[in-house]
Structures are given as C-alpha cells and as structure tokens.
Amino acid sequence: MTDTNTITKRLENEVSLLERHVKMLKTIKENEPIGIIRLAELLGHPQHKVRYSLRILEQEGLIVPSPDGAVTTEKFDEFMKDIDRLLEDMEKAVNRLKIELKSP
C-alpha cells in the first residue's frame, strides 16, 4: 500500500504501533518475567523499539519492571477486553466507511 496522504499514513502508523504494543504485552504475559533482549528476539523488533513499547506499557500501568524483567499487572485482562471491544467498534466503523466510499 502506497501512502501519499498524511492522514492515512498517520493512521497506518498508529495501528502498527498498537499492534506492536499488544503483541509485546501478550508475549510478556506468556513469558514473564522477560527482559528486553529476549523480547526483541521473540518479536523480531530492534531493542530500541522494544524499549519504547515497554516504556509506554509501563506508563499505562500494564507492566512493571522486576529484577528478572518485565511482568504484567492486574490491569492486563481488562486492557485486553477493552482492546477487543475497541477493535470490534473500529471494524464496524471501517465497514460503514467502505459502504460510504462505494456510494455515489
């Protein structure tokens, strides 16, 4: 997909970032405690991107550092439910938008 529009490029970047954060959060949950190097290896992301995502997830209260690596908090399950609801709402909005684009 070629993006020439700033709006579409920003949307694509935000969705990609959300996808990375969610995959990382799930990987942390499945392997906790886990460090940056192992996360980077499992996810195939450079360490600087892993650090950034860890910082965001920690700011949101979804993970906490431990001496052995990152671990999830009690907010994990609710966050995953919220993301699921959000994605369902977004899917509906995308379908409405597709219909709008096809109408004369």
Alpha-carbon Rg, integer: 17 Å
Instruction: Give me the oligomer status.
Output: single chain
- CATH class category of the domain at 6-73: Mainly Alpha
Specify the structural class: mainly alpha
Amount of beta strand: 5-15%
The CATH superfamily of the domain at 6-73 is known as: Winged helix-like DNA-binding domain superfamily/Winged helix DNA-binding domain
How many strands? 2
Helicity range of the residues? over 70%
**Shape call:** elongated
Strand order of the largest sheet: 1-2
SSE order: HHHEEH
Query: How many strands, what sense, and barrel or not for the largest sheet?
Result: 2 strands, antiparallel
Instruction: Determine the mean pLDDT.
Output: 93
N-C termini distance: 24 Å
CATH architecture of the domain at 6-73: Orthogonal Bundle
How many distinct helices? Answer: 4
Low-confidence stretches: none
Kindly report the CATH topology of the domain at 6-73: Arc Repressor Mutant, subunit A
Could you characterize the architecture of this molecule?
- The chain is mainly alpha-helical and 104 residues long.
- It has a domain at 6-73: Winged helix-like DNA-binding domain superfamily/Winged helix DNA-binding domain (Arc Repressor Mutant, subunit A).
- It is 71% helix and 8% strand.
- The protein is built from four helices and two strands; from the N terminus they run αααββα.
- The protein has helices spanning 6-31, 36-43, 47-59, 76-102; strands at 63-66, 69-72.
- Strands 1-2 form a two-stranded antiparallel sheet.
- A hairpin with a 2-residue loop joins β1 and β2.
- The longest helix is centred in the last third of the chain and has 27 residues, at 76-102.
- It is elongated, with a radius of gyration of 17 Å.
- The model has no long low-confidence stretch (mean pLDDT 93).
- It comes from Methanomassiliicoccus intestinalis (strain Issoire-Mx1).
- This is Winged helix-turn-helix transcriptional regulator.
- InterPro entries: WH-like_DNA-bd_sf, WH_DNA-bd_sf.
